[in-house]
């Protein structure tokens, strides 16, 4: 959820007044997501971290001019995107914009086709061939699960990783994600769907192996 | 107008799993939303799948935020102090 307007203006006041802990909180809150979004544009983790670092400097430089026409975080992510694009161009990287702007061009199913019966099956077309089993409640509370989730997210293509991080880890609304990444609602949802489907599959395989 | 049969109006399980995120975001058109809900109430496999996806999302929302590398945070705070005193 976006910061309520009053909370955001309080935060801005604190930052402008030079409140160091307010800035540290802001950095802690967004750093991971900034790096993940930067990874859409630049090819290495180190480059993405540099882009995030540069973004914070850009935030500080622009803070006095920030007028609150967008939310603070949308503004921060716009700064990031501009820096990341410039950096990618400088590195001579052909931008994988199609993954972000046109993900549906390459189809990707949530599950392998063999999980389902044939679409032409006389009685049960497209019905489960291998039905998912309910997950035992207590099997997923472990620290191991957290490690597994982190790995599954790391393994995603950068644009899917960025969207699932903002939506599901940070709890942003789809509209905020669209604004921050400058993508359409449909593309945002395609990326989220693919990311969630893969993370669910990772949990399923883990539980199957440990059953 | 001919009446549509169940076969043509029903979603298959394979189709349903692809509509899940749209469903959870409340982005399905009303008739499709209704078909989705009808399907998950009668189909055990899809009901379980929907629950698993909700669990996945819930677990993601509880992931701890990893700490910044110590150097990075120090550098940023230095920058902040520099900005403040500028």
Please provide a written account of the structure.
The complex is a heterodimer of chains A (211) and B (86). Chain A has 211 residues and is mostly helical. Chain A folds into two domains: 86 residues, Rna Polymerase Sigma Factor, Chain: A; 113 residues, Winged helix-like DNA-binding domain superfamily/Winged helix DNA-binding domain (Arc Repressor Mutant, subunit A), CATH 1.10.10. Chain A has nine helices and no strands. Chain A is elongated. In chain A, 36% of the residues are buried. The mean pLDDT of chain A is 90. Chain B is mainly α. Chain B has a domain of 57 residues. Chain B has five helices and no strands. Chain B is elongated, with a radius of gyration of 24 Å. The N terminus of chain B is likely disordered.
Give the gist of this structure.
The complex is a heterodimer of chains A (211) and B (86). Chain A has 211 residues and is an all-alpha fold. Chain A has helices at 5-16, 20-38, 45-62, 72-90, 97-101, 143-154, 158-169, 174-181, 185-209.
Structural class of chain B: mainly alpha
Domain module count of chain A = 2
Distance between the termini of chain A: 36 Å
Structural class of chain A: mainly alpha
Give short descriptive properties of this protein.
heterodimer, A: 211 residues, mainly alpha, Rna Polymerase Sigma Factor, Chain: A, Arc Repressor Mutant, subunit A, 9 helices, 62% helix, B: 86 residues, 5 helices, 73% helix, disordered N terminus
